[in-house]
Write a structure and sequence with these properties.
Blueprint (H helix, E strand, L loop, with lengths): L1 H9 L7 H12 L5 E8 L3 E7 L5 E7 L6 H8 L12 H21 L7 E5 L2 E5 L18 H17 L2 E2 L8 E4 L2 E4 L6 E2 L5 H18 L6 H9 L2
């Protein structure tokens, strides 16, 4: 039986390297999912799949590609994070740390009270989490403008402040990494998130604010970026 299941994973052989295949097989043996469905996004660094579990719920499996990740860019980003200043410069170590950091950041954001996908597990270059939206994944904000932009905007700013107060900056926040789940924002893609103990976090926050302010401007919400910065960071 086990062998048969393993055979099934071999059919993904032309998609994944041996190492990733082994990890996928392990995670599925441990019950995190039964099988992968088609990819919902082939990203710059990661491929995102939906997968079904035994009880027929759908989860998201994010797989960082070991071969084609731009790990020099990853290294530049991750070494500014206080938690990873001493990271070793091996390609794999960096990609694994990157995956781990995303997992830790999602947990931290969740502790702060922000709506994020529930993270289930990470293993090396693979992250498994809750799918936002059901039965289909919720659309990105850029694809689905909110019906009540003012409320959506306010919650987005509240989330940024809640994260800040809990010591976390998203670092890549924009209409691409905010999902619109029935008119409620859900933050995703925390791989660039860093703690406020890290050098230069202010620049990352300013960039997040700029992206958010520019997007909502299109929806008729005018905001001053300096005011927003103060609003988010005041004691
Ligand atoms: N938990 C989730 N629920 C629903 N959809 C998701 C979820 N996670 C990711 N997605 C979808 O997959 C897309 C890509 O995911 P994500 O933003 O995490 O990867 P990426 O932009 O390729 O990442 P990276 O910049 O880290 O390489 C998202 O924009 C979203 O549409
Ligand atoms: Mg993204």
């Amino acid at each position: 039986m086990a062998r048969k299941t393993k055979e099934k994973w071999k059919t993904y052989g032309n998609v994944f390297d041996e190492f990733t295949l082994r990890n996928l097989f392990q995670l599925s043996s441990r019950g995190f999912f039964e099988e992968l469905q088609s990819p919902i996004k082939i990203g710059k660094e990661a491929n995102i799949f939906t997968a079904v579990t035994k009880d027929s719920t759908t989860v998201i499996v994010k797989i960082y590609r070991l071969e084609t990740c731009d790990f020099n860019r990853m290294l530049d980003y991750i070494k500014t994070d206080q938690r990873y200043v001493n990271i070793r410069r091996s390609r794999r170590k960096i990609i694994f740390a990157w995956t781990q950091r995303e997992f830790r950041n999602i947990i931290k954001a969740r502790e702060a009270g922000v709506k994020v996908p529930t993270p289930y597990i990470f293993k090396d270059n693979i992250l498994v989490m809750e799918q936002i939206g059901s039965p289909k994944p919720a659309p990105q904000l850029k694809e689905a403008y909110p019906e009540e932009p003012e409320a959506f905007y306010q919650t987005t700013i509240d989330y940024m402040r809640m994260m800040y107060l809990h010591g976390l900056i998203h670092g890549d926040l924009s209409q691409f990494n905010i999902l619109n789940d029935n008119d409620n924002p859900v933050f995703i893609d925390f791989s660039q998130g860093l703690t406020t103990e890290s050098h230069g976090w202010q620049d990352y926050l300013r960039r997040d604010i700029k992206n958010v302010a520019n997007f909502f401007k299109k929806l008729g919400i005018d905001s001053d970026q300096d005011d927003l910065y103060t609003q988010i960071t005041h004691k």
